[in-house]
Write a structure and sequence with these properties.
Length: 180
């Protein structure tokens, strides 16, 4: 499925959790990719080209400029809520509903259980599906899937790796600062 005639801009931003590839369309930030070294960035750009039917352009202006400023603010502890416009076109259906609820209903410095998030979107039997939605989140950090934890108190999984999840939760004051 492609969405032709949509400009996609991308850039790689160095952050305390490693390089993040950021991509945006005219509608907003559309993708954040962890561990964006050369190969990962190339693969992510190829996936975006296939999805949108156009070759993404390396450019930090527009929504990327705002996203970069906000991420810098977030990692410095000065920003607690992202305001950059988001393009939700890389997720649909249940995943989109869950990610919207996560973005709007789980503020900085808090966590939510997979089951609680399933209940909030009216799908009480879907805790595992919530976990799958977190793993498919095209906008991690900005749409804070790191804030979703196991109902029994465990940290749960994380597509960026547990080290990054612990670092983000420590940044937000949910966990003590990791000893690594």
């Amino acid at each position: 499925m492609t969405e032709s005639n949509r400009t996609v801009s991308w850039s790689v931003q160095d952050t305390p959790i490693g390089p993040l590839l950021l991509a945006a369309t005219p509608d907003g930030l559309v993708n954040v990719v962890f561990r964006a070294g050369e190969r990962t960035a190339r693969d992510a750009v190829a996936r975006l080209a296939a999805r949108f039917g156009t070759e993404p352009v390396r450019d930090r202006s527009g929504h990327l400029d705002q996203a970069i400023r906000e991420l810098d603010g977030y990692f410095s502890g000065a920003l607690r809520e992202f305001a950059v416009a988001l393009d939700w076109s890389l997720c649909t259906g249940f995943n989109r509903r869950v990610l919207h609820e996560l973005a709007e209903g789980v503020p900085y410095g808090t966590v939510v259980g997979y089951q609680t998030l399933a209940d909030r979107v009216g799908e009480p039997g879907a805790a595992r599906a919530v976990g799958m939605a977190m793993g498919a989140n095209p906008l991690p950090v900005v749409v804070p899937c790191h804030r979703v934890v196991e109902s029994g108190g465990g940290i749960g999984g994380f597509g960026g790796g547990l080290e990054i999840k612990r670092t983000l939760l420590a940044l937000e004051g949910v966990l003590p600062e990791p000893l690594f």
